[in-house]
Amino acid sequence: MRDMHGLFLCLEVAAMDDGRIQRMTAAAAGKRFGSHDVLYGRYIPQFPVQAEREYLRLAGQYMRILKEELENGLPALKEVYGQEQETDAHVSGSRQDGFAGLLVRAAEIFRGIKERILEKTEGFGLRRRLGNIARMNRKLTVKEWKKTVKSTIGINIMEDYYLGDFYMESMEAWVEENVRLIKTVPEDTLDRMKEIVCDGFMKGKPPGRMAEEIRKAYGMGKRHAELIARDQTGKLNGQIQKAQQTDAGITEYVWYTCMDGRVRRSHKELHGKKFRWDDPPENSDGRKCHPGQDFQCRCIGRPVFNRRTISLPVDYGGGSG
Hints:
65% helix; single chain; 8 helices; mainly alpha
């Protein structure tokens, strides 16, 4: 019902003349602007750490399914690997036959692992849980936006304006993309493990060494899933942030980093500088991007409010903002 109410509010605002909305916003925020045409956001929106933490938890739980099935299948894989190595060592000219036998038997084991993973992930609810994370991200980003608007120009935004289908298309696209990204991690990791088995056999590595490398491959896959979680949280936050500001008639922002040890040098160089939403800056790494668009970026665009262009769905009832 809240989503439907938000849709009606969006339609109501959309039906207004753009000039009328701008005049209403300017009138409501007039005292804050005073004699100035431009105001810099007094509150710096915060990165949605809670959404990132939830995504990291989801990625860890999803990859744990692979770990459990891998540990269950690893003893059989080591046994097959060792048996074929023994055959190769004691029977002259058997290397090719041993390798072919290993491929067949290892493929059966990996196929079983993959089938059991698919069975478990069917009930994991990946799409639903990613949808919940997307909504959490939106909720937190909207909350920060409302704080910024309230503290800077002193007005409340309609409570449900951002709860309808305002961002539905981009959020659905984000969920679809993230379902694909997360699902491919176990598949790619299993493919890497198959290569480790083949390479280990051809190079004469002992079963224990092969198993150790497989576990390392799992660790790399898990870290990749975590990278996706951090990267995609920032990307959705950046998309929503840009949509909020440009929809509100904001054309400029000041680049702000999280100012911690994770911030890369090329983004530190952008910190505190002003840019336009229609012209992304090029950083020293050679990438043109807005806050949140670069990989694993947690940067924020501090909005620059302009009296002549600001246009917001003002809540004259004094609702929370």
